[in-house]
Amino acid sequence: MKDLTVEDLRRLIAQDVGLRWLLPVALDFLRDTAPQEAAAGWYDDDLLSAVLTRPETVWRNAHELARHLNETVRMLTDLSPYIQREVDEFRTALSDVL
């Protein structure tokens, strides 16, 4: 796993491959880069989109990861409209967990 690129993570996660192992790695990466992304302004990220759009059941089986993602997204500003829509859908579907 250490040799996977961000694009590799995005592609695998979007295909629901190895989510048990890859989601924590992706969430840590997103958390680590959120401050720089927020400082840069406009945020439009394919990895974030892939993570946000995993099926609701994935997050219902991993409450801590869902909360981790929600906290990371709160660190971001100026989300693109399509990412903001995905965030809103994620939060609405999991409002009882977050």
Short description:
The protein has 98 residues and is an all-alpha fold. It has helices at 6-14, 19-40, 46-52, 56-60, 63-74, 81-93.
Question: Strands, helices and their partners?
Answer:
Layout: H1 6-14, H2 19-40, H3 46-52, H4 56-60, H5 63-74, H6 81-93
Helix pairs in contact: 1-2, 1-3, 2-5
Task: Tag the structure with descriptive keywords.
single chain, 98 residues, mainly alpha, 69% helix
SS summary, helix count: 6
- Poorly predicted runs: none
* Category by helix and strand content: mainly alpha
Secondary structure: helix percent: 55-70%
Order of H and E elements: HHHHHH
Give the overall silhouette: globular
Straight-line N-to-C gap: 28 Å
| Overall mean confidence score, pLDDT | 93
Radius of gyration: 12 Å
Strand content range? under 5%
Number of strands: 0
Characterize the largest beta sheet: strand count, sense, and whether it forms a barrel.
Answer: none
Protein model, in words:
Helix content is 69%, strand content 0%. By secondary structure, it is mostly helical. Helix 1 crosses helix 2 and helix 1 runs parallel beside helix 3.
